[in-house]
Amino acid sequence: MTETAVHAQAWLPVALSPSATALMLLGVILSSSIFADAVARRTRLPRISLLVMVGVGVAVVQQWVLGAPEPRPLDGLGEPLIQVALVMVAFLLGGELTRSRLKSIGPLLLILSLSVIGVGALAVGLGLLALGFPLVVAVSLAAISVATDPAAVQETVHASGDSRLRARLLLGIVAIDDGWGIVVFGLAMAGLGWMLSGAGGGERALLEAGWELGGALLLGAAVGLPAAWLTGRLRPGEPTQVEALALILLLAGLSQWLGVSSLLAAMITGALVANLSTHHTRSFNEIEHIEWPFLVFFFVLSGASVDLYHLDDALGLTLAYILLRLLGRYLGGRLGVRLARERQAELPRNIGLALTPQAGVAMGMALLAAEQFPAYGPLLLSAVVGSTVVFEILGPVLVRRVLT
Question: Which ranges of 231-342 does DSSP label H, i.e. alpha helix?
Answer without folding.
Answer: 241-258, 262-276, 285-304, 315-339
